[in-house]
Amino acid sequence: MDYADSDRAQELADRAHELMEEVVLPLERERAGGMAVSSGTIADLREAAREYDIYAPQIAAEYGGMGESFRDVLPVFEEAGRSLLGAAAMRVDAPDEGNMHLLELAGDEVQKETYLEPLVEGEIASGFSMTEPLDGAGSDPKMIRTTAEKNAAEGASGDPRETTASRDGDEWVIDGHKWWTSNGVEADVLIVLARTDPDAHPYEGCSLFLVPADADGVDIVRDVPHMGGGTRGASHAEIVYENVRVPEEHLLGNLNEGFSHAQARLGPARLTHCMRFSGMAQRALEIAKAYLSEREGFGSTLSDKQSLRHRIADAEARLHVARTAIRDAADRIEDGDEARIPVSMCKVFTANVTQGAIDLAVQCCGANGIGKDLPLADFYEAVRKFRIIDGADEVHRRIIARDAFADVNREELEPLTRFGEPNTRRGSGH
Ligand SMILES: Cc1cc2nc3c(=O)[nH]c(=O)nc-3n(C[C@H](O)[C@H](O)[C@H](O)COP(=O)(O)OP(=O)(O)OC[C@H]3O[C@@H](n4cnc5c(N)ncnc54)[C@H](O)[C@@H]3O)c2cc1C
């Protein structure tokens, strides 16, 4: 399907496609599904991406990227999503991609030099620590556990499971408990959201901190056992931050503006998830169509069975709508709009469309949808999280519905009869 992407976007997408077809997909087909690739293999893929001139296209050239616009990198992200190895190769992989974007937006020059440039180079990895265990921040991030005190000794609650950051001379002292920090085990630097003003509404009283993973008091408790992620081998860590001291300069962005900085990260990051996952859906359908076109049964190829053709047609149509909506939202972001409602619409719709497409592809390929000779089973495991991360379906529907109900026109119901108020309009004669 062709889209109204710019010439530059198309040129970048062509390079990404070549890299995928000539390097990434052959490697993916060579190796057994579900098995983690080594960091050496990722480094080789990144070297290849550099040779194909399609490495970190979304990052400004001064920090090691290609300086392409958000809208123009969109089809590159889609291409990258066609394999679980594609995004890592082109350095458009979550969570580093979102963290790099945040550092680019909110970091000062020293922070960019210290963390952004090595991240772009692939020399270090990062995590974003926002979600907390069961009684803390989750779908409702306002539930972040905080005691904002200026003096660490007075402010510390003694409970390391509460996430707090308090001023102590020239240092920040962070105490808290996070989980599901993607990359948490591998990360060299963790971006931690902590409460810094207990009297303010959390949206105006939290800040972000850059915490070196080897700082005293950072305890990587475990990689929470989880579905998916095997191929890339990425972790989702539970981390306790206990009396972690970082210098004043490790505040990322402005004091007490952590939520708005996080939102600046999450908005585009939700959309880049949509781009990568729609590429995964497209690949799943490509595999399904190849299988149906070769496999015979009941006197014809399976691709001749109308019930299957119709289901593929529906999946293609839904994917096209998702990809079109993603382009619309990206255009708005490119124009400086936060595009909150369009992004929420894309997130919930694309997640469900992708999950449906992959489920259909698994079904079409029979046992080979379950087997790991094809990447579909890995896709199936990978896609489920998409309906939960960066805001569950219900949270995005809540945002969309709030907007949808904001301009209800009650005049539409004027003709209806209310109890005890007979309708004075003449009947239709029946
Ligand atoms: C693979 C993976 C990677 C992740 N990576 C990170 C990361 O790097 N950093 C980070 O900080 N977090 C990360 N998370 C956490 C993720 O952001 C949260 O899981 C998500 O925000 C939901 O929070 P929760 O798990 O606490 O769900 P809960 O808040 O406990 O909600 C449970 C379920 O209830 C439903 N629900 C919630 N609110 C409503 C509502 N208002 N109305 C109706 N239904 C509702 C939803 O279906 C939701 O899934 C990751 C999670 C996963 C699975």
TrEMBL record:
Region (Disordered): 149-170
Gene Ontology molecular function terms on file: acyl-CoA dehydrogenase activity; flavin adenine dinucleotide binding
GO cellular component: cytoplasm
Ranges of residues in domain Acyl-CoA oxidase/dehydrogenase middle: 128-244
Entry keywords, A to Z: Coiled coil, FAD, Flavoprotein, Oxidoreductase
Record's keyword annotation contains Flavoprotein: yes
Pfam families in UniProt: Acyl-CoA_dh_1, Acyl-CoA_dh_M, Acyl-CoA_dh_N
Domain of life from the UniProt record: Archaea
BP GO annotations: fatty acid beta-oxidation using acyl-CoA dehydrogenase
Ranges in coiled-coil conformation: 305-332
UniProt keyword annotation of Flavoprotein present: yes
Cofactor(s) this protein requires: FAD
Domain Acyl-CoA dehydrogenase/oxidase N-terminal: 7-123
Ranges of biased composition (kind: Basic and acidic residues): 159-170
Xref: Gene3D superfamilies: Acyl-CoA dehydrogenase/oxidase, N-terminal domain, Butyryl-CoA Dehydrogenase, subunit A, domain 2, Butyryl-CoA Dehydrogenase, subunit A, domain 3
Residues of the Acyl-CoA dehydrogenase/oxidase C-terminal domain: 256-403
Subunit structure: Homodimer.
Family of the protein in this entry: Belongs to the acyl-CoA dehydrogenase family.
Protein name in the entry: Acyl-CoA dehydrogenase domain protein
Organism, as annotated: Haloterrigena turkmenica (strain ATCC 51198 / DSM 5511 / JCM 9101 / NCIMB 13204 / VKM B-1734 / 4k) (Halococcus turkmenicus)
